[in-house]
Amino acid sequence: MRLFLSGRYLKWFVIVELLGLMILGVMTGFLGFIAEMALSAVLGYCLIRRSGETLRASQQQFSQLNQLDPRALPRHMAMVVGGFLMILPGLLTDAAGVLIVLIGYSASLKQSTNRRTQPNEGSAIIEGEFESSSDPETYAQPNTGQLPPGSKPKH
């Protein structure tokens, strides 16, 4: 990090950012340039605000139930950092912000799909067999099987 913030690399970063902004201004015109700056700033602000609200809600949940999902914190930090980079003017910072946000969302999606595909401890897994029937008489006859006690047939 210290190497990047040294004057030589920071100077080249600023030059490349300004060159990219000038090219964007020439290609899209003044209104396109202003629209890109405004849209990226608004999107960054919305990301930071939403992440802050979600963190506040999870903090309240922790204070009430003493349960906090530690896997959610890196995703929210990625949203805040990505949103901040999108607020800063420049194409490289916008690209870096979008990349960080996408990495945060992909990690979150990976965790949520892993959580859904793995059965909970103590959950019952029901195994069974079935056979399909293409007999039209089977479809025409109502199910005359035994109903559990206390249940009513559906009409």
Keywords:
mainly alpha
* Number of helical stretches of at least 4 residues: 4
What distance separates the N and C termini?
70 Å
Structural class, by secondary structure, is: mainly alpha
Could you spell the SSE succession in H and E letters?
Answer: HHHH
**Level of helix content?**
55-70%
Characterize this entry briefly.
The protein is mainly α.
If you had to describe this structure to a student in words, what would you say it looks like?
- By secondary structure, the protein is mainly alpha-helical.
- It has a domain at 37-115.
- The protein is 69% helix and 0% strand.
- It has four helices and no strands.
- The longest helix has 59 residues, at 7-65.
- The termini are far apart.
Write the layout of secondary structure elements.
Layout: H1 7-65, H2 72-87, H3 91-117, H4 136-140
